[in-house]
Amino acid sequence: MKIIYKTKNEITGEEIMNVFKSVGWNKNPEDILDAFKNSYYVTAYHNNKLVAFARSISDGYYYTGIYDVIVNPKYQKKGIAKEMMKMLLSKFKGTYFFLSYTEDNREFYEKCGFEDLPSGMWMNREKSFNLDIDKL
Ligand SMILES: CC(C)(COP(=O)(O)OP(=O)(O)OC[C@H]1O[C@@H](n2cnc3c(N)ncnc32)[C@H](O)[C@@H]1OP(=O)(O)O)[C@@H](O)C(=O)NCCC(=O)NCCS
Predict the structure, then answer these.
(1) In this predicted model, what pLDDT tens digit does every residue of 63-112 receive, in sequence order?
(2) Which domain holds residue 75?
(3) Which residue of 92, 95, 115, 131 shows the fewest CB atoms closer than 10 Å?
(4) Which candidate, 61, 136, 35, 107, places its Cα nearest to that of 53?
């Protein structure tokens, strides 16, 4: 199966949504297109159809976050996600890499070289949306 990989290429909200929907995830199409535009992303195509992507946000020197690593189920277990991860790791080689994962995917990220972060914190989106900054 010939998979073509691209980086930061032209992409539509509909194409992105089709990949999200293939794994049962939903997003706002306009927001997610904007989010991609603000990220460095890798895409994977089969017969001109977007079948997978992975995106990152980096300062280019110190810190890189990895998000939305998604492969259409019909194309999973063929090494596509690992190839996209390699492209992101290579692009921002030498920076700290961070990601969060769902438990089912821990082993995949371990195979990409990731390990547990001994101390880390986060704030989820809903909390950040409702946060009363003055009350902190
Ligand atoms: C997780 C996901 C991106 C992996 O994509 P993929 O293209 O199937 O992964 P690859 O084929 O590149 O797998 C690379 C290696 O990781 C392993 N692997 C992949 N997914 C795995 C999983 N869920 N559990 C354990 N191992 C996994 C593969 O067996 C392969 O091992 P190998 O190198 O020893 O042969 C894909 O299953 C997916 O899109 N899931 C739904 C969306 C999602 O949950 N994304 C991650 C958000 S945290």
Answers:
(1) 999 999 999 999 999 999 999 999 999 999 999 999 999 989 999 999 99
(2) 4-135
(3) 115
(4) 35
